[in-house]
């Protein structure tokens, strides 16, 4: 649904984005993570056709983002900018009605569309509020409702949870998941990492204009983790299990904590079931046998070579 081929925008002085290759299938949530100034907003603006690339190409649902296709691209994308304008003397209703007109939604359909969009973002009760009186969290909901008015297939949300308190962030996550469940393809940017791990099907890590990693959270994590971290939980004396683990080729740094055995593993993943068979075959009662994944924060620091 979203695809880029060596997409590049050079602002000079090493700023911009370079050779970006993204591929986001329909119905997925793609989390775009990077520190301030990495190029997230630039990418988003390129995808929406608000900035022209220096080289490379971008496609939305197979349609190239070029001026000749502006109308088609606009119809397919719902864009929530990181900062959106202030509309002082307008109620939420008037604000959404104004954008319905801008999207050329026929007048008889507008009310239905507005109500459907507000319902999806849980903002129906704000209908008569003045836009200026909305809190940041409320404004994000109304902004999101605005992006849904023309029923676009792709939602591109720049820092949708920026400035929100923890409760409002959880609500925003739920809303985003709900939108995926009704079939939208969603790209969202953030520099708040753990917030994305739970809901994203795909993540990309960008720094200084370059995509350093792209894939599922598990894939990206695995790629940067040199050793697999394995945990075995047994229901009795961990000693025999510890010995089997220590003897297993590729296992090292074995450590025991109560009835849990932790070790680092450098061998092939495909050989791990052999260890489990060995344990159970030798009478060890195994409660859990798992690969522990580094969390997104550790992955991010590792990929961008930053120190915590
Ligand atoms: N119109 C422009 N002209 C010149 N430089 C620009 C322009 N837009 C962005 N840049 C530069 O490109 C780089 C990437 O900026 P961008 O806004 O895409 O970062 P970002 O990842 O969205 O950061 P943030 O997390 O702060 O929103 C920055 O160095 C920025 O100064
Ligand atoms: Mg930005």
How would you characterize the overall build of this protein?
- This protein is α/β, with parallel strands linked by helices and 308 residues long.
- The protein contains eleven helices and 15 strands.
- The chain folds into two domains: 2-222, Rossmann fold (3-Layer(aba) Sandwich); 226-292, 2-Layer Sandwich (Alpha-Beta Plaits).
- The protein has helices spanning 40-47, 70-76, 92-102, 107-120, 136-148, 166-181, 194-197, 217-224, 239-247, 272-281, 296-303; strands at 2-12, 15-20, 23-24, 29-33, 55-60, 63-64, 77-80, 154-158, 185-190, 202-207, 210-215, 228-234, 251-257, 260-265, 286-292.
- The strands form three sheets. It has a six-stranded mixed sheet, with helices on both faces.
- α6 links the parallel β8 and β9 (185-190).
- α4 (107-120) crosses α5 (136-148) and α8 (217-224) packs across α11.
- The protein is elongated and about 75 Å long.
- The structure holds adenosine-5'-triphosphate and magnesium ion.
Widest β-sheet, arrangement of strands:
7-8-9-4-10-11
The structural domain count equals 2
Measure the end-to-end span: 35 Å
Specify the number of helices: 11
Taken in chain order, the helices and strands follow as EEEEHEEHEHHHEHEHEEHEHEEHEH
Task: State the secondary-structure class.
Answer: alpha/beta
Query: What's the CATH H-level homologous superfamily of the largest domain?
Result: P-loop containing nucleotide triphosphate hydrolases
Task: Give the radius of gyration.
Answer: 24 Å
**What ligands are attached or bound here?**
adenosine-5'-triphosphate, magnesium ion
Classify the beta-strand content into a percent band: 25-35%
The percent of residues in helical segments reads 25-40%
CATH fold title of the largest domain = Rossmann fold
CATH class of the largest domain: Alpha Beta
Give a count of the beta strands, DSSP E runs of length 2 or more. Answer: 15
Largest sheet report: 6 strands, mixed
Overall average pLDDT: 90
Low-pLDDT residue intervals, each spanning 5 or more residues: none
Question: Which term fits the overall shape?
Answer: elongated
CATH architecture of the largest domain: 3-Layer(aba) Sandwich
């Amino acid at each position: 649904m979203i695809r880029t081929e060596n997409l590049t925008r050079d602002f000079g002085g090493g700023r911009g984005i370079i050779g970006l290759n993204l591929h986001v299938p329909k119905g997925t949530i793609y989390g775009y993570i990077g520190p301030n100034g990495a190029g997230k907003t630039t990418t988003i603006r390129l995808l929406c056709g608000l900035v022209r690339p220096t080289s490379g190409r971008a496609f939305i649902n197979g349609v190239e983002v070029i001026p000749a296709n502006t109308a088609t691209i606009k119809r397919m994308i719902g864009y929530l900018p990181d900062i959106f304008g202030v509309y002082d003397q307008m109620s939420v209703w008037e604000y959404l009605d104004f954008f319905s007109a801008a999207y050329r939604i026929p007048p008889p359909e507008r009310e239905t569309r507005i109500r459907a969009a507000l319902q999806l973002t849980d903002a129906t009760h704000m209908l008569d509020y003045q836009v200026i009186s909305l809190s940041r969290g409320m404004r994000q909901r109304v902004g999101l409702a605005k992006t849904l008015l023309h029923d676009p297939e792709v939602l591109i949300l720049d820092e949708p949870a920026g400035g929100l308190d923890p409760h409002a962030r959880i609500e925003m996550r739920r809303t985003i998941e709900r939108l995926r469940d009704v079939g939208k393809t969603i790209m969202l940017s953030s520099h708040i990492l753990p917030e994305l791990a739970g809901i994203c099907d795909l993540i990309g890590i960008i720094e200084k204009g370059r995509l350093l990693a792209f894939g599922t959270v598990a894939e990206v994590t695995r790629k940067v983790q040199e050793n697999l971290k394995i945990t075995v939980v047994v229901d009795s004396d961990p000693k025999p299990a510890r010995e089997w683990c220590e003897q297993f080729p590729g296992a090292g740094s074995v450590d025991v904590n109560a009835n849990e055995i932790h070790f680092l593993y450098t061998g092939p993943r495909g050989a791990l079931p052999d260890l489990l068979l060995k344990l159970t075959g030798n009478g060890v009662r195994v409660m859990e046998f798992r690969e522990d994944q580094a969390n997104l924060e550790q992955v991010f620091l590792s990929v961008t070579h930053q120190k915590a």
